[in-house]
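Work Package 3 (structural annotation) set out to generate three-dimensional models for the target panel prioritized at the project kickoff. During this period the team completed the workflow that converts sequence records into discrete structure tokens, so that structures can be stored uniformly alongside our sequence database. As a representative example, we reproduce one entry of 93 residues exactly as it appears in the project archive.
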Amino acid sequence: MSNKLDQKIKSLIDTKASTINHKAFYHAQFASTIINQLNDFIDGKLILSEERIVALLDHLVGYYTITLDIPLSIDTKILRAVKFDRLDNRHYL
């Protein structure tokens, strides 16, 4: 893939991400909170009902994925992350 096409794809992803996630730090903290709850459940530090686990996982899948309609080669790798400098103390939902 050419460098020019790589830059165009990155630009499209950044534009789409900015549009649907203009509160990136808030959403990163929120997703981190959900992941911390699930990790604490796995480690036996927190009791969660099956319904709560399903709701947490549904929230992660439903709200923290991006769908792009860009035809790409099957070998194309895309990495996406949101940079933030700190997380506040854990707050369970």
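The chain is about 55% helix and 0% strand.
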